[in-house]
Amino acid sequence: MIAALWQPVSGCGDHCRDGADRHPAPGTATLRMIVLAFVLIGGLLMVPLLRGPAVRGLARTMLRVLGIRVVRRGPALRPGSLIVANHVSWLDILVLMAVAPMRLVAKGEVGAWPGIGSLAGLSGAIFIDRSRPKALPSTVAEVAAALRAGRTVAAFPEGTTFCGVNRGQFRPALFQAAVDAGAPVVPASINYDSTAAAFIGDDTLFASVRRVAALRSLTVTVVTAPALRPTPGADRRALARAAQASMGVGGYRLAA
């Protein structure tokens, strides 16, 4: 049984942003946010009809509206894999959705976020109630069932967001799902070329969206490592350590 309360705390805050970002022409941020709202509203009306492909297309369109370019490197993702990624921003959700069809594991609060929460829900997100540690085993079982069904599932084992320079340790709970399902684990490094992308400290979603929209451009690089294939009965803690080590703790060697 997994009974640990999964509520890690990040020491990152506003002081982690270097403020060295170049901003676009005046009014660009406002225009981007207006267009983003229209795209999101229109997309949420269409996604329930089209499902999978529409979710991915909507995520890609939202990123383009915000001036964000996604660079993808590493082995191709195979269906039925557990993707474990570092966590920097709410943007990580859109980025992973844009990379490949997948279900996301997210904290329950994300489901209440305007727009992003609805999109995550439509993609089949599995929400974790971090205030109820006794519910965690059922979440792990749901993830394992999705993996057995051939669905790709993405999770953020750090449990909260970090600035990108500082990072947290991977929590082992969800790795048990890969062990139980006999599914490959794919470590993924998410790297932004601006500290403005970090969603940390006392940030609100609106303030973070506006800060990102005010950037001239933003590039995010997603680099996947070769899959780890747990043996039956493998130790989830060792698997979590191996996944994080393959990304390069303290520097993410996978990053360009």
Structural description of this entry:
The protein has 256 residues and is of the alpha/beta class. It is 37% helix and 14% strand. It has helices at residues 28-50, 52-65, 91-99, 116-122, 136-148, 175-181, 205-213, 236-247; strands at residues 68-73, 82-85, 103-107, 126-128, 153-155, 185-192, 218-224. α4 (116-122) links the parallel β3 (103-107) and β4. α1 runs antiparallel to α2 (52-65) and α1 (28-50) crosses α7. The longest helix is centred in the first third of the chain and has 23 residues, at 28-50.
In short:
The protein has 256 residues and is an alpha/beta fold. Helix content is 37%, strand content 14%. It has a 7-stranded mixed sheet with strand order 1-7-6-2-5-3-4, with helices on both faces.
List keywords for this structure.
globular, single chain, 256 residues, seven-stranded mixed sheet, 8 helices, alpha/beta, disordered C terminus
List the helices and strands and how they pair.
Elements: H1 28-50, H2 52-65, E1 68-73, E2 82-85, H3 91-99, E3 103-107, H4 116-122, E4 126-128, H5 136-148, E5 153-155, H6 175-181, E6 185-192, H7 205-213, E7 218-224, H8 236-247
Helix pairs in contact: 1-2, 1-7, 2-3, 5-6
Number of helical stretches of at least 4 residues: 8
Order of helices and strands: HHEEHEHEHEHEHEH
* Neighbour order of strands in the largest sheet: 1-7-6-2-5-3-4
CA-CA gap between termini: 39 Å
Number of strands: 7
Q: Give the DSSP E fraction (strand runs of 2 or more residues).
A: 5-15%
Low-confidence stretches: 1-5, 249-256
Shape: globular
The radius of gyration is: 17 Å
The largest sheet, given as strand count, sense and whether it forms a barrel, is:
7 strands, mixed
Helix percent band: 25-40%
**Whole-number average pLDDT?**
84
Sheet/helix structural class: alpha/beta
- What's the multimeric state? single chain
